[in-house]
């Protein structure tokens, strides 16, 4: 095993230094919570009687504090395909807990919206703040002084980050994340994308489009493209917060149930009263956060995590920014190409070697921190193995020596790119990020006149009118957290892809999001500071030449400096009422910039 890469060591040391005070306050907080905080032994008889009144055969054990009582926090609903499998999980987990003398209770449920359903709809304006809502809901679930550990049932976009943020605020508890797996592969994602573009051009009917979408999203489990949901599962593996290898086995399989059973057994064994105490707040340290960033870069994961990871880190008293991402990106090779970065989906990735192969290979090359506290029996090395069933017994074998598909997965020595899949762009427009792993290198630099919009619908109207059939930088502003909750702008993907396919140079610049489904069109996203409140994107005018360059890290309006500074910034459109969006005004008002996590909750690291 090679020594740690010097860039990783340098960035990690910098994160340790800038997080020193906040992390110390955080660790003091969770230590005090563990020693003096809410515990069943401190509850009055009335408190305790309320808590086990409906616990059936577990009453005696809970009453007498005979063993660990595990909190189950579930994001189950049966509209969201990824979370539909969780329906029976609580009752199974209770059985699994009893096998090791423990008990389990559903501590609470959290909302779980599907970005796939709300894309381009009003509900998408609630998406980012659903993460904070989930974190607060989870905190309420864990506020009862009844638990010695927690199992988090969640998979999708904002749900895992929200659960993790809240788990870290109760960081004295050992906590394991329990996924349910991706649905089996359906219609190839490339074919789905082809039909979408044909529909955008008016060459496919709505019935044909719906047929293609239904053949792609067809059953229980996570959507199979490598978006934010599956990037979440990668991240939980590389941070050591899953049972090793739990990320991508399909729902309803024996191995999936065995992994869930192992999680229930394990969380009962890593409590404070045992000999292997592994509280979540100690597992998620500076090195684990760096590992999360490395996993994101090495696999070309979702750009949403350039918002989520800073917010998660702050919940643990740790400070990271996009400079840390950018410097790590220069050192981390791209070892996976999963749709939209390649042709195969996460099932093909799993078959090629999956996370066990990725972690094993990165560790061998000194590209991950091995010495982290995981929820398992050892450090991160255990996550370089692959789970299997032998006579119905769960075992772990070495990950495959070689990838079975080098179009999908490769070792670092023959990586798809020597650099990670994300770039930081800076200039007189502010700071933004670009997912370069899905963009052909010939399009990493675009310089063209800007066309300014304030809504996705206005872009679509201009496209249909033929006004964008030229070299163009499409600017969509007033899409940040404070303006409208920072929705994902996926209505833009098909028309911009069509313009590019017609031979024009096209790029997107926005203070909004594009997420893990960011595709082949170069997109400078998450632009900070956002337009609302004075961000310089507000100074742009139609016709200004804008340079977007991932090679030099440039995002520049080619405007005379004196004229640029003299320009006024227009007021943005008012926040739209309806669908309860007005209830989130407080969150919009207090939201951080995207680089700090776009959160309305955490105003100072460690507090």
TrEMBL record:
Signal peptide: none
The species this protein was found in: Alteriqipengyuania halimionae
Start and end residues of each Dihydroxy-acid/6-phosphogluconate dehydratase C-terminal domain: 408-597
Catalysis: reaction(s): 6-phospho-D-gluconate = 2-dehydro-3-deoxy-6-phospho-D-gluconate + H2O
Positions annotated to bind [4Fe-4S] cluster: 156, 223
UniProt superkingdom: Bacteria
GO CC field: cytosol
Protein name: Phosphogluconate dehydratase
Gene: edd
């Amino acid at each position: 095993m090679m020594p740690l890469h010097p860039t990783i060591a340098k960035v990690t040391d910098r994160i340790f230094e800038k997080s020193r005070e906040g992390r110390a306050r955080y660790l003091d907080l969770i230590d005090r919570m563990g020693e003096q905080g809410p515990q069943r032994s401190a509850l009055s008889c009335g408190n305790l009687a309320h808590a086990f009144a409906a616990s059936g055969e577990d009453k005696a054990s809970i009453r007498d504090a005979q063993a660990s009582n595990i909190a189950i926090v579930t994001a189950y609903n049966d509209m969201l395909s990824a979370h539909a499998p969780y329906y029976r999980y609580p009752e199974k987990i209770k059985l699994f807990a009893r096998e090791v003398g423990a008990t389990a209770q559903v501590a609470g449920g959290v909302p779980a919206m599907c970005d796939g359903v709300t894309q381009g709809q009003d509900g998408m304006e609630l998406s980012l703040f659903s993460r904070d809502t989930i974190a607060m809901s989870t905190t309420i679930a864990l506020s009862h002084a009844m638990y010695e550990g927690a199992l988090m049932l969640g998979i999708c976009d904002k749900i895992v980050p929200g659960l993790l943020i809240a788990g870290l605020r109760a960081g004295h508890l050992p906590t394991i994340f329990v996924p349910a797996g991706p649905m089996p592969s359906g219609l190839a994602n490339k074919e789905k994308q082809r039909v979408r573009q044909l529909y955008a051009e008016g060459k496919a009917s709505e019935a044909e489009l719906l047929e293609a979408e239904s053949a792609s999203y067809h059953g229980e489990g996570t959507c199979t493209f490598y978006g934010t949901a599956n990037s979440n599962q990668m991240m939980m593996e590389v941070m050591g917060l899953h049972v090793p290898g739990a990320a991508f086995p399909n729902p309803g399989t024996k191995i999936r149930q065995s992994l869930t059973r192992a999680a229930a057994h394990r969380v009962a064994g890593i409590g404070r009263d045992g000999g292997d105490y592994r509280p979540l707040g100690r597992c998620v340290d500076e090195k684990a956060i760096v590992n999360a960033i490395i996993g994101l870069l090495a696999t070309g994961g979702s750009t949403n995590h350039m918002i989520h990871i800073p917010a998660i880190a702050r919940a643990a008293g740790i400070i990271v920014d996009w400079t840390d991402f950018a410097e790590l990106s220069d050192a981390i090779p791209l070892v996976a190409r999963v749709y939209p970065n390649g042709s195969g989906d996460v099932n093909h990735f799993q078959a090629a070697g999956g996370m066990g192969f990725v972690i094993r290979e990165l560790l061998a090359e000194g590209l991950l921190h091995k010495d982290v506290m995981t929820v398992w029996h050892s450090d991160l090395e255990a996550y370089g193995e692959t789970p299997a069933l032998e006579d119905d017994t769960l075992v772990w074998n070495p990950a495959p020596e070689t990838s079975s598909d080098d179009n999908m997965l490769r070792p670092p020595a023959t990586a798809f790119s020597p650099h990670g899949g994300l770039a930081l762009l800076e200039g007189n427009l502010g700071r933004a990020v670009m997912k370069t792993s899905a963009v052909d290198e010939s399009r990493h630099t675009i310089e063209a006149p800007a066309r300014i919009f304030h809504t996705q619908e206005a872009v679509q109207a201009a496209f249909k009118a033929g006004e964008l059939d030229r070299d163009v930088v499409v600017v969509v502003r007033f899409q940040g957290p404070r303006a409208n909750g920072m929705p994902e702008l996926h209505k833009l993907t098909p028309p911009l892809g069509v313009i590019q396919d017609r031979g024009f140079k096209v790029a997107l610049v926005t203070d909004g999001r594009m997420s893990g489904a960011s595709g082949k069109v170069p997109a400078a996203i998450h632009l900070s500071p956002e337009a609302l409140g004075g961000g310089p994107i507000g100074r742009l005018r139609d016709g200004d030449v804008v340079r977007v360059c991932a090679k030099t890290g440039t995002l520049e309006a080619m405007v005379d400096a004196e004229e640029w500074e003299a320009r006024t910034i227009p007021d943005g459109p008012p926040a739209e009422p309806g669908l309860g969006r007005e209830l989130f005004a407080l969150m919009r008002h207090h939201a951080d910039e995207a680089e700090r996590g776009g959160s309305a909750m955490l105003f100072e690291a460690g507090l």
